[in-house]
Amino acid sequence: MAAAALYGAGGAMKGGKLGMEGAVDMQLNRIRITLSSKNVKNLEKVCADLVKGAKAKELRVKGPVRIPTKVLHITTRKSPCGEGTNTWDRFEFRIHKRVIDLISSPEVVKQITSITIEPGVEVEVTIADV
Amino acid sequence: MAGRGAGGGGRKTRNFATFRLFPRAGAADPNDRVFVRVDNNDYNVPGFADEDPFDSNFTADAADLHSFASGPLPEHVRREILELGLPDDGYNYLSHLRELRPAASAASSFVPNSTARPEPLPLDVKAYDASRVRVAPSADDLDEGKTMCKVAAKTAPLRRVQRALDPDVARLLDESDFSHGGSEDEGLEEDFVIMANQAEGDDEVEEEEEELGNGIFSDVEEEKEEEEFEDEPKPRVRRLLDEQFDLLALEEYGDSDDDDDDRGGRDGDYELPSEAIEELKLFCDQNGCVDEDYRTPADFVRGRLESTTADEVDESANVIQKCAEYAERYLNEPAEEKETVLVSESSDESEVWDCETIVSTYSNLDNHPGKIETPGNRRKRLPRVFPGETATTNDLIKLHGKEKLPVDYLPQRKRNGEKEKKVKPAEAFNAEKVKKEVHKETKEEKKARKAAVKEEKREARKAKKELKGLYKSETQKAQKVAAVTGPSSIRLM
Question: What's one GO BP annotation on this UniProt entry (chain B) (predicted)?
Answer without folding.
Answer: ribosomal small subunit biogenesis
